[in-house]
Write a structure and sequence with these properties.
By secondary structure, this protein is α+β, with helices and mostly antiparallel strands. It has two domains: 76 residues, no CATH class; 166 residues, 2-Layer Sandwich (Muramoyl-pentapeptide Carboxypeptidase, domain 2), CATH 3.30.1380.10. The protein is built from eight helices and eleven strands. Strand 3 and strand 4 form a beta hairpin. The model has no long low-confidence stretch (mean pLDDT 91).
């Protein structure tokens, strides 16, 4: 079985692989499969469990419509671990934007945002508020732990609401909101277009305060936000979307991005 120093998210094009021991079975029949497996294979669009891998044996959770070539790609990635600094090419950017009726050049010029590549590997950085594994870029994870420990020493508690999100998952957010009747232009005031979100980099964290709702402007009135404003820069983090930001995205006091520091 994998040990904590080996915990990684292996990021493929359509599937990813995560340590099976960090995830709960979604049905009783699947519990034994997860318990005896090293890797859990998931659909990046929605997090659906596809298969589990143990000693090079793949066990499917259902009759999955995945072509063998796609699954071979996951096996190849698992065999070539250690690419901590490598990133995936932006192969799905144009198809996703075309589906939404967005021109990449025009959107980039209007928003001031640039396409963001995804790491091939992300590090386990503990758990978020909802007890989900938190995946971050390697140095971002270390900086987050230092920041949180320093805040705790000052009597300020904070937690992570979310970290890495793939382009496919971001596209799923748009599809779900459109299905509820929202227009693309409305969604773009809250979410960056797929391929342009800082969350793709594994360097962005949505931060919350204990007892406060997630991703609400009320976070700015908490001791956690006050502490971040005064100290986050010393750990390499900056607030991405202040009030009146030039990107056209609403105020997000909870969204912080790691730009690097001397301790990384």
């Amino acid at each position: 079985m994998l040990t904590p120093p080996e915990y990684r998210l292996i990021n493929g094009r359509e599937l990813d692989a995560v340590p099976a021991c960090l995830y709960h079975a979604k049905a009783n029949a699947h519990a034994r499969i997860l318990a005896s497996s090293q890797w859990l294979i998931r659909d990046k669009r929605n997090g659906e469990y596809v298969a589990a891998l143990s000693d090079r044996r793949m066990t499917f959770f259902r009759r999955a419509p995945w072509h063998q070539a796609r699954l071979d790609g996951i096996a190849e990635m698992l065999a070539g671990q250690g690419r901590r600094t490598a990133c995936r090419p932006l192969t799905d950017l144009e198809p996703h934007l075309a589906e939404l009726g967005i021109d990449a050049g025009e959107y980039g010029a209007e928003s001031g945002l640039s396409p963001v590549t995804e790491p091939i590997e992300l590090e386990f950085a503990g758990y978020d508020r909802y007890r989900r594994p938190l995946w971050l870029e390697y140095n971002t994870g270390k900086a987050w732990h230092r920041l949180r420990q320093a805040a705790s020493a000052d009597g300020v508690a904070m937690d992570a609401i979310s970290g890495f999100r793939s382009q496919q998952y971001q596209m799923g957010i748009f599809r779900r909101k459109m299905a509820r009747g929202l227009s693309v232009s409305d969604i773009l005031t809250v979410n960056a277009a797929p391929g342009f979100s800082e969350h793709h980099s594994g360097r962005a964290i949505d931060i919350g305060a204990h007892g406060e709702p997630s991703a609400e402007e009320s976070f700015e009135r908490t001791p956690a936000f006050d502490w971040l404003q005064r100290h986050a820069g010393g750990f390499g983090f900056r607030l991405s979307f202040p009030r009146g930001n030039s990107h056209g995205i609403g105020y997000e006091p909870w969204h912080w991005y790691w730009i690097g520091d001397a301790q990384s």
